[in-house]
Design a protein that fits this description.
Blueprint: H1 16-47, H2 58-86, H3 90-94, E1 97-101, H4 109-124, H5 129-132, H6 143-148, E2 150-154, H7 157-160
Antiparallel strand pairs: 1-2
Helix pairs in contact: 1-2, 2-4
């Protein structure tokens, strides 16, 4: 028996563990430059503790600020623009997940994605509730997904590489 004309099967909703894995991959990629800048800064501070002028040197402050700026740029590109336009961040691509609008099942665009990211930070301050919500939610949505009517789906092999 074939599907009705015009019918497009909807991929299943993503489970909690792959969503967490995708977020960890994204955070690792985005956090490396900030971590390098921070380590350089801390090493410089500790190496100068016994000196009369124990203030950090300018290069270490610049390295720290540059690392933070690069990490922010990576976050903006990956989590806002790439994910907004394609539905997939680097982590979601790696784990074959996609972020879509609940009504159209299409990527939600950078503006709505930015709002989703802001809500994720706001809801993260409610201890773990936002991250754990998909475990008992019938639609497997976080609270920030519910506010913006978005879903994270599992996608097949053929669609997983559709991102940039």
């Amino acid at each position: 028996m074939s599907a009705p004309y015009g019918y497009t099967p909807v991929p299943p909703l993503a489970e909690w563990l792959p969503r967490v894995g995708a977020a960890l991959i994204d955070r690792l990629i985005e956090g490396v430059p900030a971590a390098i800048g921070y380590i350089l800064f801390i090493v410089n501070v500790f190496s100068r503790m016994d000196q009369e002028n124990d203030a950090p040197q300018a290069w270490s402050v610049i390295a720290f600020l540059l690392g933070m700026a690069i990490s922010f740029g990576l976050w903006l590109w990956n989590r806002v623009f790439r994910q907004g336009n394609t539905g997939q961040s680097v982590g979601k691509s790696a784990l074959k997940l996609r972020l879509v609008d609940g009504a159209t099942l299409q990527p939600i665009g950078p503006g709505k994605t930015f709002g989703r990211e802001v809500l994720a930070v706001v809801f993260a301050y409610v201890p773990l509730i936002d991250s754990l919500w998909p475990l008992w939610d019938e639609q497997k949505q976080t609270l920030h997904d519910k506010v913006l009517n978005t879903y994270v789906q599992s996608v097949g092999e053929q669609e997983a590489g559709a991102g940039y």
